[in-house]
Design goal:
It is built from eleven helices and 20 strands. With about 425 residues, the protein is α+β, with helices and mostly antiparallel strands. The chain folds into three domains: about 190 residues, no CATH class; about 80 residues, no CATH class; about 120 residues, Alpha-Beta Plaits (2-Layer Sandwich). The strands form six sheets. The chain has a five-stranded antiparallel beta sheet with strand order 2-17-4-13-14, with no helix packed on it. Strands 5, 6, 9, 10 and 12 form a five-stranded antiparallel beta sheet that branches. Helix 1 runs parallel beside helix 3, helix 3 runs antiparallel to helix 6 and helix 3 runs antiparallel to helix 11. The radius of gyration is 39 Å and the shape is rod-shaped.
């Protein structure tokens, strides 16, 4: 009795405040009572040499199993809380970047791959090179028409004085840019003292059924010059045809008029940066915090403590090896999945956290999925901890005296015939 009392005083009292679960609900106690009663009906009677070392080992084993069960409970609670996803992570943002449209989300999306085959491009009309300082078109009214999609725009531009080609190009470029018709104009000057006027569509890609983004041509009118500004500068020459972006999402062909777009009515916006025909870029959720990391570390600590106890807690106890084998066997079936979750196993079968894997945004979801499987790893561990806490003496060497008569009717006192008899008290008064 003194041995058990001292153990509870030193082990339980010091950890009581930190224990996550110190009070059982009535239905939980009833379930425990039922399991003990059922266990005793079918359990053999043993002769046990309860030495001081065995008593300490048995009490420590029960305590370690309860601690591990508590960490599993807390880990489950962490997964029940919604995971805040504040961004979409790209494995190569130089090729594809991804963002959420409206901030944080609690809904998880499965990672997907994007392969950029071609970027969307605007239409570019490049005028012909002409001497920059040469005299430009004669003073006169000039008219031209620009067709942008279904919209047509008529322009009248009056050249009032003699200007150089360079000066007139700059004035005409400013004139077009101020018109706000989604056509960008600029003057390119070369080292050989030549200049050219370049027009480009503000938007990329092509509308369905269209062959060009815009067109430009001279317009005849009363008093206009027979040689128009479009033909003089060669503005109707298409140097780059507009094309839509072409890409694959999880292997399926997709296209877009723009390089930045919302993907398939989702909350994710993709920005294609450059073509990479042989590279699959993974887009995955990125959490605002790793809610379960602390609970996961506590779980590994408790598991390793229990595993170590089976090796060092009782010298020469053969049944400790059986418990060690039970624990390692439970984990062995899910080692690959645990690795995806950032949990690796040492050579001595203890567990540790792989920090690099934990940095991956999909790791927490893998762990959550593994935890929530009804017959998965954590469910089996939880069941095993319940068995150990109810009957830690099962892992102490003992001699079978007799087997119970399971057919005999009558009430079974769970604490009188329990294998616990003699664990805390050597005898009854």
């Amino acid at each position: 009795m003194i041995q058990a009392y001292n153990h509870f005083l030193t082990e339980y009292s010091s950890n009581f405040s930190a224990r996550t679960r110190s009070v059982h609900k009535p239905n939980e106690l009833k379930a425990v009572y039922g399991r003990i009663q059922s266990m005793n009906r079918h359990s053999a009677y043993y002769k046990i040499d309860l030495s001081r070392e065995k008593q300490l080992f048995t009490l420590s084993l029960k305590d370690a199993s309860l601690a591990l069960a508590d960490t599993l409970t807390e880990l489950g609670k962490a997964f029940e809380r919604p995971t805040i996803i504040n961004s979409a992570h790209s494995s190569n943002p130089e090729v594809v970047s991804a963002t959420f449209l409206d901030g944080e989300h609690t809904s998880y999306f499965e990672p997907f791959s994007v392969r950029v085959k071609a970027l969307a491009k605007p239409q570019i009309n490049t005028g012909r090179k002409i001497p920059s300082d040469a005299e430009g078109p004669a003073p006169a009214p000039y008219r031209f028409r620009i067709q942008v999609g279904a919209d047509s725009y008529e322009f009248s531009y009056n050249v009032s004085t003699v200007s150089t080609n360079r000066d007139l190009m700059h004035k005409l470029a400013n004139f077009i840019n101020r018109s706000d018709i989604h056509i960008l104009a600029k003057v390119e000057e070369d080292a050989d003292h030549t200049s050219r006027l370049v027009l480009s569509s503000e938007d990329t890609g092509l509308l369905p059924g269209a062959s060009e983004a815009f067109s430009i041509e001279d317009s005849a009118g009363e008093g206009t010059s027979p040689v128009g500004l479009v033909s003089y500068f060669g503005l109707d020459e298409v140097s780059q045809k507009p094309v839509n972006a072409k890409f694959l999402v999880d292997g399926k062909e997709k296209s877009s008029m723009r390089n930045t777009f919302v993907l398939d009515r989702s909350n994710i916006s993709l920005s294609l940066k450059k073509a990479a025909k042989k590279e699959d870029v993974t887009i995955s959720p990125e959490t605002a915090g790793e809610q379960a990391i602390g609970e996961l570390a506590d779980f590994l600590k408790s598991y390793n403590a229990l595993l170590t106890l089976t090796r060092t807690g009782l010298t020469g106890n053969r049944r400790s090896a059986r418990l060690q084998n039970d624990l390692t066997h439970i984990l062995s079936t899910d080692l690959d999945e645990l690795g995806r979750c950032g949990i690796k196993r040492n050579e001595d079968f203890t567990l540790y956290i792989d920090s690099e894997t934990m940095k991956k945004p999909e790791t927490m979801q893998h762990l959550k999925t593994l935890f929530e499987e009804p017959d998965g790893l954590f469910a089996k561990l939880s069941h095993k901890m319940s068995d150990i806490s109810l009957n830690p003496m099962d892992y102490v060497d003992k001699v079978v005296v007799t087997y119970p008569n399971t057919k005999r009717a009558g009430f079974t006192n769970p604490y009188l015939t329990s294998i616990y008899s003699g664990m805390m008290f050597n005898s009854y008064c």
